[in-house]
């Protein structure tokens, strides 16, 4: 396989390597991943995370195993096991389906490697095009609010919603970003803040619950968020807390944009209620762990509700930004 290099994933020197996103921003640790169990664990623990990235990381691992001479049945098992790691982001399923097709060919190892290279390069190009379309929605001086992390760390390219912000900041003066910290795993406070600082884009971090008063004070011009799965009717799943923002945006009359590559669109899913929402461990809510320390504040055995994502209805979306363009209702159905 050729060399493939992204911000948090690379294939280099014959090895699949991932940047540990659970340890960021205080520790930059790269892991080499050589087997399915390790990749499953990296994805389950959110060391590898973000809808496009989990699909691509799983893909590179399967391509690596194919290059190492794994048999067809082993590759088939690997694809199934990796697809089962996280249920909500459709990008992972999309990648695994592409590999299943490649596996049908006589020269399946070569076909898998080719698919992996194509999926990786395609994601870079999709992010680029998303940025070019999304920038049309941004004006100089905008204060943009975003949630979770949708940047280069979460994709092979410049990112999706954060990619739009990155593109805008290159072309327009005085772009400022309000960054939701994104409880419980703090992808905003840890990862989006880290990326914006590296890109030298001015930002301000806030607790998720502060967004309402910020909007009421007229300090948010636009909201850009990513997606893990967009249903055929435009409903979409994204990091828990996104739905709150959409409701608040409607109330305060603030444009609310969803940004994603075509690989996040699921034509087989009619509406948001059909999207499976991943439920995660109680310990993520009862305390914290990671490079920011280890601590439990809730009482032992506290009862916890911890869905990783929520579903925002299409009726709350101002427009969907895809690699193919910006779609307002009712044109959305044309995708
Ligand atoms: O649980 P995570 O950190 O993988 O959730 C990520 C998100 O919800 C992102 O907004 C989404 O995957 C889009 S990333 C370009």
Describe this structure in words.
- The chain is of the alpha/beta class and 335 residues long.
- The chain has two domains: 4-128, translation initiation factor eif-2b, domain 1 (Four Helix Bundle (Hemerythrin (Met), subunit A), Up-down Bundle), CATH 1.20.120.420; 132-334, 3-Layer(aba) Sandwich (Rossmann fold).
- It is built from ten helices and 17 strands.
- The protein has helices at 36-44, 51-67, 72-83, 90-103, 108-134, 161-171, 187-199, 211-216, 242-252, 283-286, and strands spanning 4-5, 9-12, 15-19, 30-33, 143-146, 176-180, 203-206, 222-225, 229-231, 236-239, 256-259, 265-266, 287-288, 295-296, 309-312, 319-322, 325-328.
- A seven-stranded mixed sheet has the order 7-6-5-8-11-16-17, with helices on both faces.
- The radius of gyration is 19 Å and the shape is globular.
- The structure holds 5-S-methyl-1-O-phosphono-5-thio-D-ribulose (MRU).
- 5-S-methyl-1-O-phosphono-5-thio-D-ribulose (MRU) binds next to α2 and β10.
């Amino acid at each position: 396989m050729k060399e493939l290099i992204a911000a948090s994933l690379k294939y280099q020197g014959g090895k699949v390597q991932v940047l540990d996103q659970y340890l960021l921003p205080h520790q930059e640790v790269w892991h080499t991943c050589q087997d399915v169990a390790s990749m499953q664990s990296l994805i389950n623990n959110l060391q590898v995370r973000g809808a496009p990235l989990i699909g691509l990381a799983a893909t590179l691992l399967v391509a690596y195993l194919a290059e190492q001479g794994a048999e067809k049945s082993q590759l088939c098992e690997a694809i199934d096991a990796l697809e089962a790691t996280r249920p909500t982001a459709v990008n992972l399923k999309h990648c695994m389906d592409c590999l299943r097709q490649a596996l049908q060919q006589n020269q399946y190892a070569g076909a898998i490697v080719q698919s992996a290279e194509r999926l990786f390069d395609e994601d870079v190009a999709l992010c680029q095009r998303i940025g070019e379309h999304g920038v049309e929605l941004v004006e100089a001086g905008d204060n943009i609010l975003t949630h979770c992390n949708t940047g280069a760390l979460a994709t092979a390219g410049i990112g999706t919603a954060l990619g739009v912000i990155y593109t805008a900041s290159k072309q327009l003066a005085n772009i400022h970003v309000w960054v939701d910290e994104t409880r419980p795993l703090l992808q905003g406070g840890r990862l989006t803040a880290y990326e914006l600082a590296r890109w030298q884009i001015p930002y301000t971090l806030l607790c998720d619950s502060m967004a309402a008063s910020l909007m009421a004070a007229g300090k948010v011009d636009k909201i850009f968020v990513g997606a893990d799965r967009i249903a055929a009717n435009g409903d979409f799943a994204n990091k828990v807390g996104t739905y709150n923002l959409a409701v608040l945006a409607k109330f305060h009359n603030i444009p609310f944009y969803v940004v994603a590559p075509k690989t996040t669109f699921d034509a087989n899913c009619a509406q948001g209620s059909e999207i499976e929402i991943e439920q995660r461990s109680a310990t993520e809510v009862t305390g914290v762990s990671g490079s920011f320390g280890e601590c439990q504040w809730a009482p032992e055995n506290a009862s916890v509700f911890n869905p990783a994502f929520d579903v925002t209805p299409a009726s709350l979306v101002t427009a969907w930004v895809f690699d193919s363009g910006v779609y307002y209702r009712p044109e959305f159905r044309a995708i």
